[in-house]
Specification:
Layout: H1 6-14, E1 17-22, H2 49-53, H3 57-70, H4 77-85, H5 89-97, E2 102-108, H6 114-117, E3 133-137, H7 138-156, H8 166-182, E4 186-191, H9 193-196, H10 207-224, H11 232-249, E5 253-255, H12 275-280, E6 286-288, H13 296-305, E7 309-312, H14 316-319, H15 322-335, E8 341-342, H16 351-374, H17 380-398
Parallel strand pairs: 1-2, 2-3, 3-4, 4-5, 5-6, 6-7, 7-8
Helix pairs in contact: 1-16, 1-17, 3-4, 5-16, 7-8, 8-11, 10-11, 13-15, 15-16
């Protein structure tokens, strides 16, 4: 660290942050419900996750950082797991969260498993100085509405021809999304279309095809009692409806882009295929999540030409190596206006995900900007302003949070 950048280091490493995309922590009784290797890999459990993930540079670095956090000298991943298992859960949460200086969490509580195993979003208020807010996952929200509609249809004994109830589903969904948008606890929506049918969402959905898809969904539901909306015609209607309502109400819509588990089709996870959708909803703020990795440059381009597009540089911490993280941050900054970048941990399940997602992001941001200052490509004050925007100010503005950064004197 250069002495000339000491103030930049202080700001980058300690300025309060708004985590604009994360998920709830596991409840104490379920603290081991998922393999801990999910902390450093998107690979599905049972697919070689435990062996392969622990041989990555990302895991080696996480092991050393967690050892230091726990007060240990171990270099072994299995020993890290043993150590954390002996720590009281409340103590573990505080130990991981206090150094992050996260002031506010925006939580998507629609992740699969949250209802069964995780704490509710308001529980997380004990970990931050500002209240936690919700992000509504629209596909899961729609599935819950459709389940209720179909239960009513089945109970009524209607024929298949009468069971389509397209109008009932879409009207109920529209009313529900509007109620969410009016709820002060809800600061935005999120779409996982990337996982379901891809990001090439049709701005003009085929309503007739949706009717047919809903009939098939109903017939399957009668047998399995499960719903997973993965038909493009249905998902396109859900996403476009959310975009319309969000635009009217001034709420951003987040999109999972890029990096994800094996459910995604990689070629359809690039935000480049979203151009028609972005153009169709110019009044709706669209946040591209997860650095769109490995399509970061495509995402940066979209932020530079469309006023309504923003880029979150999250989830690459801690999934990428340190060099990979710095490279991605550089790509974000190549073209993206600095008033349009946001940071997140994509923290979930384990408090360590928030810790690693924060300390690594702060370090990468400092190192990249410090090099720019040293090369006289920007002033230190420009770099400091960039950090403040990325960590706090942009999210505060885009999600209309109205927060004041809590940064105690002497920090």
């Amino acid at each position: 660290m250069s002495a000339n950048n000491s103030e930049l280091a202080r700001v980058a490493l300690t300025y309060p942050a708004i985590d604009n995309h994360a998920h709830p922590l596991l409840a104490e009784i379920y603290r081991d419900a998922y393999p801990f290797e999910g902390l450093i890999s998107e690979a599905s459990p049972g697919s070689g996750l435990s062996h392969d993930a622990t041989t990555t540079l990302a895991c080696y670095r996480a092991t050393l950082q967690l050892a230091k956090l726990y007060g240990s000298n171990t270099e072994q991943w299995e020993e890290i797991k043993q150590i954390r298992s002996t720590v009281d859960y409340a103590t573990l949460c505080r130990l991981c969260m206090q150094p992050t200086r996260i002031q506010c969490l925006l939580l998507d509580d629609g992740l699969g498993g949250v209802a069964q195993y995780a704490e509710n979003y308001k529980w997380h208020d004990r970990l931050t100085s500002s209240p936690t807010k919700r992000i509504v996952r629209v596909e899961v929200f729609a599935e819950n509405i459709l389940r209720n509609v179909m239960d009513n249809v089945i109970e009524g004994g209607a024929s298949v021809a009468d069971r389509i109830l397209m109008g009932k589903f879409t009207q109920t969904l529209q009313d529900g999304l509007r109620q969410c948008a009016a709820d002060p606890e809800v600061v935005g929506f999120k779409s996982i279309a990337c996982y379901r049918t891809g990001l090439d969402v049709n701005p003009n959905p085929d309503k007739h095809a949706m009717d047919k898809a809903l009939v098939m969904t109903l017939l399957k539901y009668e047998v399995t009692k499960t719903i997973r909306l993965a038909d493009k015609a249905v998902n396109d209607v859900i996403v476009t409806m959310a975009l319309q309502i969000a635009g009217e109400c001034g709420k951003p819509v987040q999109f999972h882009t890029g990096l994800g588990d094996s459910d995604i089709t990689l070629s359809l996870s690039s935000p480049a295929v979203m151009q028609p959708l972005i153009k169709a909803y110019p009044q709706t703020k669209i946040v591209l999540l997860h650095s769109s990795y490995p399509f970061t440059r495509e995402a940066g381009y979209l932020t530079s030409v469309y006023p309504n597009v923003y880029l979150d540089f999250g989830e690459i911490f801690p999934f990428l190596s340190a060099d990979g993280q710095r490279s991605t941050v550089k790509q974000v900054l190549e073209l993206c206006p600095t008033n349009k970048i946001l940071w997140s941990t994509d923290g979930h399940w384990w408090p360590e995900s928030f810790y690693l997602g924060t300390v690594q992001a702060r370090q990468a941001l400092f190192e990249v900007l410090s090099e720019c200052v040293q090369r006289r490509e920007m002033s230190e004050s420009h770099a400091i302003d960039t950090v403040k925007r990325a960590l706090f100010e942009n999210a505060n503005r885009i999600y209309n949070l109205g927060l004041v950064p809590y940064w105690p004197a002497g920090v």
